[in-house]
Queue: 2 jobs
Job 1
Amino acid sequence: MLLCSSFYKAKAQISKIPVYKDIPYLQDYSIKYNSRNDQEILEGYMDRNGVIQILSNNGILRTHDGQFLYPGTLMKDKTYRPLTDKNINGITTYQDQFIYLDNKAVLSNAWAGKLFLPHELPKAKFLAAGIDFEFLISDGETLQFLSKDKATWKGKTDDVVLGILYDSTKEIFWILGKQSISSFEVSKNTLKTTQQEENLTSFTLFNKKLIIGTSNGYFEIDPNTGERIGEIKNKLPVNSITSIASIDDHLWFGSTKGAFKLRDDGKFDYYYGKRWLPGNMVKHISEGSDGSVLILTDAGLGQIIFENMSLFDKAQYYEKQVRNRHIRLGFNATLVDLEDGNIDSGRLSDSDNDGLWTSMYLAGEVFRYAVTKSEDALKNCREAMEAMERLFNINPVPGFPSRSFERSGYIQKLHNPERWQHTSDPEWDWKSTTSSDEAIGHIFAYGVMAELMDNDLKDRAITLIDTLMSHIVRNDMYMVDFDGKPTTWGKWNPEYVNARPKMVGDRKINSSNRQSNEANGRNNISTRGCR
């Protein structure tokens, strides 16, 4: 009666816990597109149709395939064959349409192809679009203004041009040099230059200020006066800035070691490594017409997607992923040996933690079933439970859970043959030396099933709790393997635990393991008794 009373008191306390409301939030994730080693990629943009084009030393590239966690590639764009004959050295967008710069003209396939403005700079590679089809281009030394209505203009700066951008509020073009900032005023055909001390690398307009990137941070300039605002800012994730863009009221920085966004609270969201980018040397950043951010690196493109989703939406994505590529003999298994992220090139492998990872998945499916009564979740529970039960009955040691099992002769077992043991069935082998974390995972999953399931799985879970705990208690708080010896980590005997100094992790962890398991066992025995 005491156990039943404690059980119902606990149930009453749980019922008073506030229910979480699954409110959608903005989730960022990356789709990566790898480039070939012989391709030097320079800058990239997206048009109003969602098409991405990349300027490279091999002409225009476009994205092929590519999904979250499944990289695509950058390949030669052959969609418009006459364009492949052009010597394209520059690209940008205007009114969300692609604009190209070749050795003869500024041109586009939009607007029925009517845009074609000849120029006199055969090595031109920089361009920026102004208003009413006005453009400023440069070959790195000379500047030329082009317009369908106004006279052309040519001039030079005393610096090496690194980039051009248009300021719509002042109706001027800004020109970035290695150590200078220049402005070209269209209405007066005048070029004004201000020298700078730092080695400049990139720039953008943000909140009516010029943001100038350097090899050691960035600084701000007042466009009206040309004077600096404050000191150089170099307390950044990485100070060597290679690209800057103003996107959706936020500053984005590319660097020699990834990209980062300045948040409203002054902190940064940092995008680094293969999770986000094909390479970490950022070449160019631009805004996609779909709200994504295109981060071009020396090894390809990382497209950062921002999508509103709830936790349920996110869980459903991973649920589909697990079912599609991670189920092996009922286990939640590891996919290994992928070729550059290609999931179709991988193979399902056994793991020392097949039981642990599967118990985590099993518990999650139990929670899902308890809330939604999903038949799919129930099927997943039954499939995983069969694998977990077989961990016990495939070996000859009473109450001992195997790490894993696999068909005999499986080549992966050659890597650690000492852990694999033959069964009485010549078709199957089982993996020994089960550790404490495996046992804790088992108890957690079975405890959840015993508490929340309303079918035969409830009794099956309680049986496995009793089976595992009986083995441990019968063996003086050890997990004893096929050789009659305790496994390396399956040890909760007080003499073993207390022999460690108080500050050693194993003493704390194993003590808490023992208390948790005993409490879990009592609770589930009470569940059976009160039924």
Job 2
Amino acid sequence: MGWEAWYTLGIVAALVAALASGKMGSDTCMLTALTLLMAAGVIDASEAVAGFAHPAVLMIAALFVVATGLSETGAMTALSKHLLGRPKTLPGALLRLTIPVTALSAFMNNTPIVAMYLPIVDDWSKKLNISPSKLFMPLSFAAILGGACTLIGTSTNLAVNSLYIEYFRNHAAELTAQFGLSEPSPTKQFWWISVVGVPGAIVGIGLIALLSGKLLPERRRLNQSGLEGRRYTVEMMVEPGSPLVGQSIEQAGLRHLPGLFLSEIERDGVVRPAVGPDEVLQANDRLVFVGVVESVVDLMKIRGLSPATDQVRKVEGSRAQRTLVEAVVSHNSPLVRRTVRQSQFRTRYNAAIVAVHRGGQRVAGKIGDIVLQPGDTLLLSTHQGFLEANRNSDHFYLVSGIEGAREVRHERAWVAALIMVMLVVLLTVPTQPLLGRQIPPITAGFLAATAMIITRCCTGTVARQNINWQVLLVIGAAIGIGRAMEVTGAAQVVADLIFKVVGPLGLHGALAGLFVTTTAFCQLITNKGAAVLMFPITMAVARDMNASPEPFVVTLMVASALSFLTPVGFVTNLMVFGPGGYRFTDYARLGTPLTIAMCVLCVLITPLAFPFHPEAASQDQAPPVAGRSSEHAGALSSWRVEPAAPMVRSSAERMELGGTFPGP
């Protein structure tokens, strides 16, 4: 092993230690490691940065734009309401989340599913008052479990399957004579991983529901103390024709809004305090809410509710530029000791006052009748230019924007939903009727993202702001680091050493060793890279032990598809790493019992479905041996990853032609 391999192993070890310490950002750690590998000449710069243009990275970027369109139109909220509901317990919430995600991931690539669910789950966690860290990792793990249920669940399955088909064709006479094997039919290829994947998904979902609450830490807990901080009293009106008309407070989802409570309803001039959950809403009801500003932002996004003051509708400017702003009245302001109506606030500033905060006390009366005082904090509905125009004005002590407070375009929700349906169809239907072929998934993703902007479901500026660049940097750098492990031979040497220990353990021990070794390599390089690296070694071990290669192929496929132990082991783990506020070691807490369970299931089930020595094998074959026969001595050392390189390219070509998303 040359110095390049030792150097690469040292960099990877330092990277793991840095990520585990939690003292540096994951993107900083990854980019630093990649830079050191390039600086030492271990990997060519063009090859190192190729990961940033990888289809996985570009597809995720496009899906962030799609998710932005769903969020900006309110379609995201509708999806979360209908798909996820309002479970009462954390295990119930996890089951409502993981079951559909696992089912979808069996037939769609898991990367776009997680990308689309991220904002939905983030919004859902707020409504349920559950820390996002309790939900994001289960989201990723459920997608990974689903990917192991069918051939098309993840491109790794396709890669291993393609390699085996090519291997079988090159050794068909030998395998048929010795084991009575024939080339797997398309149906068998599609479902053979399901023998382990489906039971594994059932067991995995159960473990996630039972263990997540105990094993996952609470990161970014919702700030309950905010209720005792700056609170606003906001009046909202139920619009005529609103979908809320005829629904009870409970059914409309207005009772359990975090950091916000409904204090009273005014109907036909009569005030009804202490509103019960069964109160049915009517058109033109004026609802009085009290809550923190983040909750007021969520309230403004509910379809069918609008601020009770008509001044909001009179603010000039396009709806795409509308936002919420907080401004603190200064003692020199011409607003002091005047009512909002007398100050002609909207005419003067092109902004409408939605609510007023004053020293923690509720300011009684209608907005137009409030007499403003120095130090009052005004919640304004205005245009984005208000910030620049009044940032240095002596009328206000402080002017600040509120993140995510853009006006929701509910009238375009059906357009965003239609684009989403189009994307799902393009990703799942094998052949498009109009084209006679399947559109490549990355093309489908870019089409959907472009459609979101062209149809004004979101603007280009908002789309750029909502792309999580940290996720893209981490994934792109991880692909480059994994490539360095391969080209230096470091991964190959370590694999050989491990399998020298596995050989004497017997056939079931060899399967367990294959599973563990593949899992370990998935934590160092991408799961597809680990599968390709391990394939020739796996075939050599099966041949060396006089066993059918089929149980070994299925075990390799399952092990490379299921990676739970670290954030770098699977692309979806990287996607939830930052948003969930996780540390590197958090993944092992829940991932370890899942990995052990999957390994046990695989070792027990695979030989039953795919025997080591099929009955169709010739009766005059020598009995199986656990050690290495003289006939096959050195077979392990003769198999290297180099011969698989042409197969990797042809497999990739077949995956592109088949239209399956070639993500890690």
